[in-house]
Q: What sequence folds into this?
């Protein structure tokens, strides 16, 4: 079995693969300052609660955008599983051609998403939209080239900025806005967050198609925690919630071979 860990700014998103099947998914807050013992005991506990013996884990794969969490996660892997983790980082095999000016700047989670996308949708141009702490857009072309991306604040960050910067505007539940025009302050904020993000996604997809694909059709894949919020909109061709885990699993196998 392979344990895959996507360490983001808000959560650690984990999954267990047996052969090519994703058996289990789980999340944990990725608070900084946690010790290797905290991570190790948590991971072993999650496995046992789901009837998986920790000793069955033969490999651990990690993509991480929070540098201070790397050491305790690596130490926990070695201490509690006897495994040196595979880290998705510069220098490992990805099967991608990275067209960023500085490839080291591309987040490991975005690379994992791209690896999964080119595997699931070979010979297609793909835009990946990941709605998490940040909302990221990545263009991967049919020749497996990672062309670049767009980053904007995610829904939670946008709400936090609004409530901290405007004393009379508090936090609200992030929901799908049924009507654009709000009849109360909370509804107005919810509409702004939802429709602002929706409009941004449509415009960015349009500009990428126009500027980078000469107007050609492109498959748009949604992933990340807030993707389901927009599932009824005409944005995504496919929603793949576990895209990053699949990409990390594929990268680990590629480098193991």
A:
């Amino acid at each position: 079995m392979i344990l895959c860990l996507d360490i983001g700014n808000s959560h650690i998103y984990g999954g267990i693969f047996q052969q090519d099947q994703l058996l289990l998914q789980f999340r944990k807050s990725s608070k900084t300052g946690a010790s290797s013992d905290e991570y190790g005991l948590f991971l072993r506990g999650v496995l046992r609660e789901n009837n998986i013996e920790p000793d069955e884990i033969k490999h651990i794969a990690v993509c991480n955008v929070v540098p201070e969490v790397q050491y305790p996660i690596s130490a926990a892997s070695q201490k509690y599983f006897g495994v040196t983790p595979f880290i998705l980082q510069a220098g490992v095999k990805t099967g991608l051609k990275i067209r960023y000016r500085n490839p080291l700047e591309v987040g490991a989670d975005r690379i994992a998403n791209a690896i999964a996308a080119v595997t699931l949708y070979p010979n297609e141009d793909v835009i990946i939209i990941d709605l998490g702490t940040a909302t990221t857009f990545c263009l991967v072309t049919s020749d497996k080239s990672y062309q670049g991306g767009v980053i904007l604040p995610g829904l939670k960050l946008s709400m936090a900025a609004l409530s901290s910067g405007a004393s009379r505007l508090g936090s609200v539940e992030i929901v799908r806005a049924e009507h654009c025009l709000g009849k109360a302050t909370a509804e107005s904020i919810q509409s702004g967050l939802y429709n602002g993000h929706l409009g941004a996604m449509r415009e960015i997809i349009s500009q990428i198609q126009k500027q980078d694909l000469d107007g050609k059709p492109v498959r748009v894949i949604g992933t990340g925690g807030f993707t389901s919020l927009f599932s009824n909109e005409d944005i995504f061709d496919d929603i793949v919630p576990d895209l990053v885990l699949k990409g990390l699993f594929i990268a680990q196998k590629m480098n193991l071979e």
Notes: The mean pLDDT is 93. Residues 185-212 form the longest helix (28 residues). The chain has six helices and eleven strands. Residues 2-87 form a domain with the Nucleotidyltransferase; domain 5 fold (CATH 3.30.420.40).
